[in-house]
Amino acid sequence: MMRVRTRPDWDTYFMDMAVLASRRSSCLRRAVGAVLVKDRRLLATGYNGVPSGVTHCEVTGCLREKLNVPSGERHELCRGLHAEQNAIIQAAFHGVSIRDAVLYCTNLPCIICAKMLINAGVRRVVYLEGYADALTGEMFREVGMELVRMEEPAP
Question: Which residues are catalytic?
């Protein structure tokens, strides 16, 4: 019996990559993955965790939990970087322009990441889950950033 193969559409294909990237996360609270894409070509990936060479929170413990910081607040009180920040940094580190790129992310970017994405020239954000930051949506609408919420990709 011949099995019918279903090819994923482009958004699903790249979101699957973001989900895979999230598996590298070293954050104890939330695993987030991100990929930057332009012209259907992968430019950079990122996941949330501490900077290179810094001891992982799995060893030190979560600073945000120790300080009882609620999700979506006081982003500076964390040893880690967000997946979107790491993707932007990786592109910059390797000299890759992300102007007019699309970000695929497992979570809606926080306002700090949103401002970075706007200034980096990203034109579209596709995400899976919400995030406790209404200002992100407001700013994206103000600058005409396309924002798309996807359904969870099938396993």
Answer: 84
